[in-house]
Amino acid sequence: FFFGHRNLWDSPAAKQGLSCCHMRMPRWPGLAIALCLVGLVVGKSSVVTDIDFDNHYSFWKKNDVTVVMFFDPKSAKGKEVAPIWDELAAAVQGKAVVAKVDGTDDLEFASEYGARRFPAVKLFKKGLKEVQTFGFQREFVLPNLQHFVEQWLGPSPLPLTSAQAVDDHMAKQGAVVGLFEGQAAAKALKEYNKEASVQRTHFQFGIVDVSAVELPPEYLSGGVPSVRVAHSPGVPFTDLPVYTPKAGPLEPWLVTHCYPPVVVSWEPTRCPPPP
Fold first, then answer.
1. Backbone dihedral region for residue 234 (phi beyond 0: left; psi -120 to 50: alpha; all else: beta)
2. For residue 170, is pLDDT > 70?
3. Which residues on neighbouring strands pair with residue 106, listed in sequence order?
4. Residue ranges per structural domain of the chain
């Protein structure tokens, strides 16, 4: 059975799980076949295949990160990227849900998120309405895909629980810290958390609940709620630019005050992504 089905034999799971079958058959063929069957089970891919337009919202809401590849399994490109996708699933197993969808079959799902060329990779972050796209200009290889997924894992902003943690955080390139007090100023806190998720690939966000963390009085000189951004290397926390909700939307303020600035066509743009 196994040797008569080329698709099964060519799959990554088969290549991993049935590698023992490349050996010469031993004296106990029954044992060899049993070992091969066990290998097939162990080598089974962890890619989710039962995701579709109707149920994808449940994956989105339940999991920190769900990343979906829309592809054409019958095309040469589809056959080329499928093993790479299996490798990604193994690399981030337990941290993110990795799924694949036949975009030629579930056209409604693919078109909903603009997947018109295959393969197309879309990432869904729990709590975030915006869907992230793995750009076509990036090479479809495991390191690029893994970096794309892992930069969206975990909470953003990062909770900071001491003055030393604040200082260490603000020493990083593109560091931002928000000072809030409990659930007060809920609107400002909601905007900060949203920007922390949307802009997490450009800035490194931290957050301090000043009702639970003791900070030096001068750290609170900008008021609460407030936001500070690392503007220049070695600048003390108290000398960093201060944002308050009265200044308007947070995102353009961050772009204006980030360090180091980037100039494209003589106009400042957002900070470069953290290393």
1. left
2. yes
3. none
4. 2-42, 56-150, 158-269
Residue 114 region by backbone torsions, left for phi larger than 0, else alpha for psi between -120 and 50, else beta: left
Name residue 99's beta-bridge partners.
48, 68
pLDDT at 106: 92
Query: Is residue 3 over pLDDT 70?
Result: no
26-44 residue pLDDT tens: 444 554 444 444 433 344 5
Cβ-contact 108, 52 below 8 angstroms: no
> What is the C-alpha separation between 70 and 83, in angstroms, rounded?
14
Q: What would the two tokens of residue 224 be? A: 């609460």
Q: Which residues contact 159 (CB under 8 A, 6 or more apart)?
A: 206, 207, 208, 209
Question: What is the three-state SS of 192-239?
Answer: HHHHHHHCCCCCEEEEEECCCCCCCHHHHCCCCCEEEECCCCCCCHHH
Place of tokens 């996708």: 85
Other C-beta atoms within 10 Å of 30: how many? 7
Spatial contact of 175 and 208, defined as CB atoms under 8 Å apart: no
Calculate what percentage of the chain has a pLDDT beyond 90: 39
* Pairing outcome for strands 204-209 and 242-243: unpaired
Same fold? 56-150, 158-269: yes
CATH of domain 158-269: 3.40.30.10
56-150 belongs to CATH 3.40.50.1970: no
Cα–Cα distance between 57 and 60 in angstroms, integer? 5
Q: Is 73 exposed, middle or buried (0-12, 13-18, 19+ CB in 10 A)?
A: middle
